Sequence to fold (210 residues):
Amino acid sequence: MKKKFDIKIDDTYREITIIKKKKKNISLQVKPNLEIILSIPINLSYSNGLKLIEDKKSWIEDRLKKYSDLEDNKGNYYLGEFYPLDTIKSILPENIDYDTSLDKWYLEKLKIILEESLKKYTNLMGIYPKKIKIKPLKSAWGICYSTGTITFNSNLIKTPRHIIDYLVVHELGHLKHPNHSKEYWEYIGNFLETPKKHQKWLRKYGYKFL
Fold:
């Protein structure tokens, strides 16, 4: 079940789609085409959904600005730097789908960088994951599973190199401390300076790259 509502966001009325699903969690998305979708549990009212939208207005505005800026500037990010569309296209094969080709190029570059970073920090920390995966994640930058598998967000390639290194150390650290306790932060601080500074950077600017 879904309904559409017009809500004033950043001095503009925008259409919001609220979808009721048979699930317990709530998810809010702002897509690159500026579509705004809120998914809520089936037993939650639409009015409660609208209250959630109100609470998240500043977050929505940030996302809308990010996608509007990308559309206006016609380009994308790579290792924290914004590159115009013409620059990006010059490194990609001709006569093929731009988005598909860029995603493939991003993935190849991220695999190389992650391999370098993992080699460095697994040796330093003496911790070795059983498996590494790279795939799109809606909100998380990395996930460490109790099975020893670590999944990294494919959008990491858009962030600065120091953030990639931080995420590697962050997730490796969870193989020893599966929490965010004081001991955990002290532990990863042995291998990376000011890890909480990187965490704050991601919280402040990470939305640009997701």
Observations:
- The chain has two domains: 2-73, 87-208.
